[in-house]
Design the sequence.
């Protein structure tokens, strides 16, 4: 005889019943997964099925104990596109992205609930999956947050080239910003370590997020500050820049400056401290973590403006008496360096002052030699874990290091009408074989008009 409720033999042991129910659930789970994976290729997005599998993969990496219902939500979170064909191509106004995403999530929840009901899942189980899918774009609780994080990581790992091809660079930048900014810090660090094989995607990511994927320390303001302060060229560059800025400027209480690619704001802070405060400081950097550190540093300025953006796209008024460019020019791709100088010129008052601290090297071999020498110059009792790796990664970086010769830079600034007032080689001081190679601090006066 068989039990009408459990569909098991009457008198079966509790252990047997439990095992049988478990296998029954596993069978349902497998059937649901198979149905989802059969449906997803109907989506107009070629990457849909692979993306769903990657979301599940990352969910299990973030939480190896993720339950069956959360795994189903991971596979089915975008299933609506396979039924409706609606994609972000249909979104005409990106300012509506949050509303669009909410509608997308609700549709996906509706479709997966029908599948679960067909496969015999209970009401509470279906309600849970519904809630998880509805919230996968925004999080809100631990499990929904995990699903959201896995979705973003999988997007960066695989989807970006497809999205770029369909939607163009401008929309892709907005999408990158949306998918990255919603992540918790742990997930951001995972994304920051992704090596993009597509050069255009790598450049868009750098421009939008401001992270050097091939230099780990740029994802950690604390590590960056620690390593940079141990570098003799960096420490001397800031000290000399502050000294020369004080020498060539007057009326400091009314002074306005901009700090390009400011990092954690050390240049501006030390200068403002040295002159007793300034009227306004504008800090420009694409790295939000660095700018947060800069804001916390209590810069002595009556007005502090923060601009988190690619420096080439920064909107700046022509109001500056002084611009700091401290180890920033070499982060600009060579073909865009002219645009960078034009940006400096556009925000300086006539005859305004530019303090340019820069490392001049002609090729990768010189860069590797330079950074090896930097590491060897740090006293052994001050070397900290990670410093050597940071300097090696910087030397070899192709994402954010675009150094040129001193002759190239001198000629370029001259072509834009800047007049060099003075310059100092600050590191290495003993290099008779090539006096134009190394770190320099230069003082330029902007054109009179």
Sequence:
């Amino acid at each position: 005889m068989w039990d009408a409720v459990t569909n098991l033999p009457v008198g079966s042991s509790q252990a047997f019943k439990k095992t049988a129910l478990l296998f029954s659930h596993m069978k349902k789970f497998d059937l649901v997964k198979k149905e989802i994976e059969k449906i997803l290729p109907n989506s107009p997005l070629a990457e849909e099925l692979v993306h769903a599998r990657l979301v599940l993969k990352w969910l299990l990496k973030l939480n190896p104990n993720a339950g069956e219902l959360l795994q189903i939500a991971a596979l089915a979170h975008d299933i609506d596109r396979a039924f409706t064909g609606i994609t972000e191509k249909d979104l005409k106004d990106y300012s509506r992205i949050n509303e669009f995403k909410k509608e997308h999530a609700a549709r996906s929840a509706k479709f997966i609930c029908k599948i679960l009901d067909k496969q015999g899942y209970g009401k509470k189980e279906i309600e849970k999956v519904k809630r998880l899918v509805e919230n996968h774009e925004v999080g809100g609780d631990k499990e929904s947050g995990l699903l959201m994080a896995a979705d973003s990581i999988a997007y960066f790992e695989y989807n970006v080239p497809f999205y770029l091809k369909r939607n163009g660079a401008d929309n892709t930048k907005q999408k990158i910003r949306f998918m990255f900014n919603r992540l918790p810090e742990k997930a951001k660090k995972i994304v920051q370590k992704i090596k993009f094989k597509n050069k255009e995607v790598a450049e868009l990511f750098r421009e939008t997020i401001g992270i050097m994927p091939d230099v780990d320390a740029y994802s950690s303001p604390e590590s960056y500050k620690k390593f940079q302060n141990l570098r003799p060229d960096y420490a001397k560059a800031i000290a000399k820049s502050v000294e020369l800025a004080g020498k060539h400027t007057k009326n400091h209480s009314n002074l306005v400056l901009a700090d390009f690619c400011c990092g954690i704001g050390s240049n501006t802070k030390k200068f403002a401290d040295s002159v007793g405060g300034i009227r306004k400081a504008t800090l420009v950097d694409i790295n939000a973590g660095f700018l947060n550190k800069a804001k916390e540093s209590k810069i002595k300025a009556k007005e502090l403006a923060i601009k988190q953006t690619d420096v080439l796209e920064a909107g700046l008024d022509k109001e500056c008496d002084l611009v700091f460019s401290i180890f920033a020019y070499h982060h600009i791709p060579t073909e865009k360096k002219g645009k960078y100088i034009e940006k400096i010129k556009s925000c300086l008052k006539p005859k305004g002052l530019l303090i340019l601290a820069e490392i001049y090297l002609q090729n990768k071999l010189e860069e590797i030699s330079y950074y090896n020498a930097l590491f060897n110059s740090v006293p052994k009792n001050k070397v900290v874990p990670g410093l050597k790796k940071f300097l090696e990664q910087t030397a070899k970086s192709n994402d954010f290091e675009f150094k040129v010769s001193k002759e190239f830079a001198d000629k370029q600034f001259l072509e834009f009408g800047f007049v060099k007032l003075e310059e100092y080689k600050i590191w290495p001081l003993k290099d008779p074989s090539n006096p134009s190679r190394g770190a320099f601090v230069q003082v330029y006066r902007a054109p009179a008009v």
